[in-house]
What does this fold into?
Amino acid sequence: MTQPNNLKGKIALITGATHGIGKSIALTLARAGAEIIAIGRTQSALEELDDDIKKIGYKATLVPLDLTQSELIEKLSNVLYDRYKKLDILVCNAGILGSLTPINHIDENEWNKVISTNVTANIALLRSFDRLLKMSRKAQVLFLTSNIVQLKKPFWGIYAASKAALEQIAFSYAEEVRQTDISVNLVDPGAVATNLRSKAMPGEKQDSLTQPEDLSGFFIEVLNNNKNLHSQIFKFNEWKESQNS
It folds into this structure.
């Protein structure tokens, strides 16, 4: 098991950090000693996260930001350059579901909103933070994905397409930085009790699912990454099985 404080001195930026998986990641990395830069859309939720991080003896930088505003992402990168001169960990977690609807009923405005949030915003993050990642001795980029890409389910076209596009962006970037000190991977957390999941499956019993805090050990091991794995998809269910074997 990874020891506490193994991320001491690391600067970690997490998108969608105020709820669900993103909040669990932020608290997990804070406990491991990382300095957290938390991006979220709601100031009150960011302040709640900040209180939780302070309770465990650490600190965070709160950034209320709509990720679809790429010019603000660029401004943030300039601030972090002046303050830290590096970025060690970038966790691209923020995402929205969109409607579960037949393809011939997809609303163009909703399509654009999902793609803007789930795909284009992550391109903007890479564009803006690439130089800071390259200034780290060993940077890591994680993208949150879903097995919906492989399931070929009806009515999931908008979300599945956005995750498929995100995976290809991640794999392309991974190849582009292969000769650098940046490690790029994807994470599939499986079925987790989140607001997004409850919206998609309103009749599902949330207590029967993986809870966000259950992912803590998994994310620490992914980030520890002693084998220097690159351009992989880490699956929580496979990791959990390996822990029980």
Notes: The beta strands are 11-15, 35-40, 60-64, 89-92, 139-144, 182-188, 233-235. Residues 30 and 58 are 6 Å apart (CA to CA).
